[in-house]
Structures are given as C-alpha cells and as structure tokens.
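Exam revision sheet. Question 4 asks you to relate a sequence to its structure. Input first:
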Amino acid sequence: MPDTGPRVGRGRLAHGGLHLLLTLNSLLVVLISVNRKADSTLAFVAANGFLRWVEINNMLLGLCTVVLYYLVAARVVNDSRCRRRGGLLPLGVLFAAGAYVYALSLGDHEVTNYLHGRFCAESLPEICRVVAFNDDVFSDVVFLTGFTLLNTMLMLTQFRFPADRAPRPWDNVLITVNALFIGAGITANLAFEKAVFDPFVVGATAVFALALLRIAPRQPILRYYGIAYTVGLLATALIKMA
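Answer key, structure tokens:
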C-alpha cells in the first residue's frame, strides 16, 4: 500500500492523520444508521419500482467503507518506520479478498432485502423462501466474512507495521470517542436486531484485537478495535440481561 503523505509532526497528537480517518468512519456509521431509519430513503429510485434509495445509498456507503479501510491501512504503513515491505503482498491480497466478498454481500443483500420486504411479507411461495434465505442467511454470512477479512487486514497491518510513536493523552481520547461510535453500532446490531451469526463474529474479533493489543499495547488501531468491540459486546450483554 502506498504512502499517503508526510509524517505527523510533533504536537499534542501523535497520530493526527489517523484520527481524521477514524472520525470519517464514525460519520459513516451515523450516515448508515440515518439511511436505514429515515422515511425519506424509502422512495423508489425509478418509476418502475426499482430499488429504493435506502438500498442504493447502502451500496454507495459500502464503497466509502472499503475506501476508508484502504486509506487507514495506508496511513498505518506510512506512519511506521518499520519498513517491512515483504508484508504488503499478503495484506494486499487479504484486502482485495475482503473488499470483493464485502461488495458481493451488499449486492446480494440489498436486492433480496428489497424483494423480500416488498413482495414476500404476506405469502411465502417457493421463490419467496429462496429470497428470504438470501436476505436473512446467505448474504449475512457473506457480509460477515467480508467484514471480518477487512477488519483482520487492518489489525494485522498495524501489527506488522507498528507505529513508533506511543499515543499521547489526546490521542487516547480521540481513539476512545471514535471507538465508542463503532461500539454503539455493534450494540444496535446485536441488541436490537435479529442477529444469528453476528455475536460469534464480534466476539472472535474482540478476542483477536485484545490478543494483539496484549502483544503490542502502544498501537492505536489495536486500541481502537479493542475498545470498540469490547464495549459493543458488554453493552449488548447488559441490555439483553435487562
């Protein structure tokens, strides 16, 4: 992955460029939530009853998500003085595989979710059973696979290309704030929506992040993931118990 710019200078923040990208990711989480909940996005894209804007917007937001993953990984590599170029090839392959599977899941889910909700709410002929399976099971598995590959790629990139500057106090504040946005998104998905496989994937990701963080405790991305996924799991557990 190429360098994205000059190194962060000495100041109150040790990882200013990274915080900007993580803040954009938090904004993306907010936009995804608004897109899913707003009534204005339920209008048809075309007069023939083609997809609603909510599905189209989700696909575009998915593109933004993949681009942000790439930019964060590039920033991590750029901020590291440990130039282990040999590690870029497997990480690049992991990113390409994750991006493809993630995009595949959106293409399958958004279309089948629309068809399922519009035509199969009342009756369940054979075709609707197939659509429902794609909507509720297959696309979810593919999505979680792609998302896990992208998350794993990012954590391994940080582990393989460690930052030589330890996070300063304001770095930790910004990392925590942005991680809480992700934790809130995880909680909303696990605690308030139908989630079959998601808890296991989130739990495995949290364990992986905390294991890497134990080995490399100074790395900002590992702190980000450790906080986000641990908070998401604990908040979900508390809500379920209540």
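Marking note for examiners. Residues 16-241 form one domain.
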